[in-house]
């Protein structure tokens, strides 16, 4: 299996790349600058400059792109739209590192985590931008996409336990009433989905056991 990982130099991207390499997959890091990952193959290109020719040989493209300033939040939508456009009608799968704010807290799927009073105000602009990007992606029936949301507490430096719980559209807690996952365990879930392809055109979520 050939996997291309966009923004492989980022915190999530690095661990996803390392997980894929550890499984013996054919991994290419897609980065803007110097490759800082364990991948031996590299495409050096900005996400907005990627064409289908760049991505056509990958069975799976993982989009780990993120941006964190008010000025650049719209790029969550524009970058994902660009990738969806160039993969439109193709067999290549697109897996997206998503956010938790858009997870639903009710079975009717009317209220999202970010709509609740206790949602941290500091995270609202990012959650809103990522939620908008997901809403737009849902309309794309021409792309084999999967959007993977982490738990509410997404821990960059958390331990790799080697285990996780798979959930769906709704905010879920584990037996300890916690919604958390480390980047390392999230990477395991991401590569499991890349290999298995069980949730095409679906949003799923993952959390620690």
From TrEMBL:
* Lineage of the species this protein comes from: Bacteria, Bacillati, Bacillota, Tissierellia, Tissierellales
Write down the species: Miniphocaeibacter halophilus
What's the protein name?
NAD(P)-dependent oxidoreductase
């Amino acid at each position: 299996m050939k996997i291309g990982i966009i923004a492989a130099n980022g915190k999530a991207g690095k661990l996803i790349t390392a997980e894929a390499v550890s499984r013996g997959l054919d991994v290419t890091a897609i980065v803007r600058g110097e490759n800082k990952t364990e991948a031996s193959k590299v495409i050096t290109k900005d996400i907005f400059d990627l064409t289908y020719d760049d991505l056509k040989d990958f069975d799976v493209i993982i989009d780990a792109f993120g941006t964190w300033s008010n000025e650049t939040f719209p790029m969550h939508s524009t970058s994902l739209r660009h990738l969806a456009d160039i993969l439109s009608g193709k067999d290549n799968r697109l897996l997206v590192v998503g956010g938790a704010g858009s997870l639903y807290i009710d079975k009717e799927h009317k209220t999202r985590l970010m709509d609740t009073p206790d949602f941290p105000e500091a995270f609202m602009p990012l959650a809103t931008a990522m939620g908008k990007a997901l809403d737009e992606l849902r309309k794309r029936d021409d792309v084999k996409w999967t959007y993977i949301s982490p738990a509410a507490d997404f821990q960059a430096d958390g331990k790799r336990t080697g285990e996780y719980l798979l959930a769906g559209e709704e905010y879920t807690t584990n037996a300890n009433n916690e919604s958390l996952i480390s980047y390392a365990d999230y990477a395991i879930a991401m590569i499991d989905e890349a290999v298995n392809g069980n949730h095409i055109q679906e949003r799923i979520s993952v959390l620690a056991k």
